[in-house]
Predict the 3D structure of the following.
Amino acid sequence: MSTWQGALVRVEDASRFVDAVRELEYYLDGGGWIAQGGTPQLWEADYFFSEHEGTGEGEQWPSNLNDDLSQEEIVRYEQARTEKAPSSVMDLLMVGDVERLCKFYSVDPRKPQSRYGAGRNWRPRILFALVVALLVGAFILGVAMES
């Protein structure tokens, strides 16, 4: 039985919430990166390449790079890493490190940066205001009828 293990990275332009600037979809059991859309972004180099990892002798092998690569693929990877252009080697890469992505945006993933509060529901307040208005109106009409 296969379980879905994947990641979806979606970055949206703050001024246009409906259009994605860059969308990457990774599916481990389905062949890796199954969807790539939009223009490559500056954050991608930090997301996919680490300064502390490499394919050279004595370096720590990149955590998001497949182990069984040919020499040509390693050269291609190192060239893309030097050029900071991961789009050209997406077929060799697995999901990147979210902490490196957070570091690019100066966000500490262990500390919340914002708080979310549910929006206010105005229906009960409006209903209450209508009931009060009806009661006040009935009171005013009752006082007017007695005079």
